[in-house]
Amino acid sequence: MKVCLLYADKEWKGIRPYYDCESIVNDLGLEVLFQVAERDQEERTGTVRTALQADRHLGEALKKVMLAPLSSPEEIYYRQAVLRDLTQDEEFVKGLYGISKDMMERWERLGKNEMDKPGAARERGIQLVSRIKQLHLFVNVLAQIKALCRAHRDRFSSQGLKDFADRLSEDFSDEWEEKLRKALRDIAFFEEGEEEYSLEGSGTNKVRQVRMVLGCQVESGLKLGALKLESLETINKKFRKPRERLSLSEKMKVTFASELTVILKGSDQLEDLTRLENQVVEYVVKCFQPFMKECRAFFEQLYFETAFYRACYNLYVRSSLSGLSLCYPEVCETDCLSFENLTEYSMATYRSRVPVGNDGNIEGKMLLVITGANQGGKSTFLRSLGIAQIMLQCGMFVSAERFRSGIFPHFFPHFTRREDSAMNSGRLDEELGRFDRIIAHLGKDSLVLLNESFATTTEEEGSNIAYDMIRALTEAGVKVLTVTHLLSFARRVYEEKWPEAEFLRAERTADGRRTYKMIQGSPELTSFGLDLYDQIIPAHGEG
Known about the structure:
Layout lengths: L20 H8 L2 H7 L3 E4 L2 E4 L5 H11 L6 H15 L2 H20 L11 H32 L6 H13 L2 H13 L1 H5 L4 E2 L6 E15 L3 E16 L9 H8 L11 H21 L1 H34 L7 E2 L5 E6 L2 H7 L6 E5 L4 E6 L5 H15 L9 E4 L4 E6 L11 H14 L5 E6 L7 H17 L3 E5 L3 H9 L5 E8 L5 E7 L8 H14 L1
Parallel strand pairs: 6-10, 9-13, 9-14, 11-12, 12-13
Antiparallel strand pairs: 1-2, 3-4, 4-5, 7-8, 7-10, 14-15
């Protein structure tokens, strides 16, 4: 049995993540998404309310999947199609994850990690009972999932969910399910013992006992050999009082009963019988070991893969309640970048409101230089591009009305870090060290995001470093998106008319107001820092 909801032809195992995932999470603010995804979302009196109880597994699954890029348009569109189905079917996505989560919790209580450990002889019986109970659990949960899939099968449009439902119906067919249930009924005596119980509504006390038929050959010396299990079943019999508690008439009935009865009195005989029963049950359970091993892998995969989609559903609901536009992005060539009403998803999710969106259509370019006024939204815009790229490459939706980009399995953010006591060198040395590590891990189809990089030295020196670094990257076929206050660098690139370069700047109105819109145009020769000065000084003066 295969889950294959994340990939069409493989499970989640040994998937390679991005280099330096920690920097991607921190620089793009992705931790907000992971935290929101851990909680159910609901609307009350026009505001978004989150459930108090967080499911950490959802955030962890989302983080792992988001930080492991897909490598082809086919993989991306496959996962998008599954996600489309699940975001439109609340009952199914919640039901499937709920079943798998409950399954894992019950499995843990039954000794999930203890079942294959060797134990003393006296513990073998306990382990055998545990295996039988786990087999019961597997059968019942698979039946639940199969019933859920059958109820929703007509609503599936994605190949991933259709194949999942069909595989389950084929690999866990009704005939195979009945065979498993019959085997469990046959060995029920071992799991429950011969404890007295009452049949529901009958008022009659019953016990469960084993009826076992063995075939054998008589070998030399009248020894029995070649034992073969012919049949095994658990039968329900009326509970009989111990002989010393029987009345005279009851003793007579037992004595003259028509059923042939063999009374074993010796302790050795009883031990041999018990040992034989244990061996027979162990043999039956061993026959289903391949099935149980397959179930172990299936349920572990299901719990992880459905957690990713359940987390995405929580984000989807949060976005809808906040009025945020979402779309499923398109894959294009690496020198193409096009978007409409693109917003910074982490900020929008955290604040539960729609921020200013940006439009752009950049074709045939491998370098995007973003300049303009301080606090004009440049860094926020760069993060919006980075988050959208990460979400595209893991098959998720994007916070935009439309988004098109290439696939970059090698993704590197390089954002300015604040200086702290842990640094053993200056900030420029730290920046160059990180850049050196990025260069060492570059590969085919690489994307580098630079946010105010090399601004920790003089404007002249920083511009020279940026020029040399970015020139080398673009000549090597690396795509670079950079926000910079190094105006000498930006102006030099613009005047040299690099064919692979496009320029955006943060819009500023004549009265100094920031619109947080990025517009195409030549880089300006100032960051308009005096605007901020004029805003801050009067404010302090009035205080």
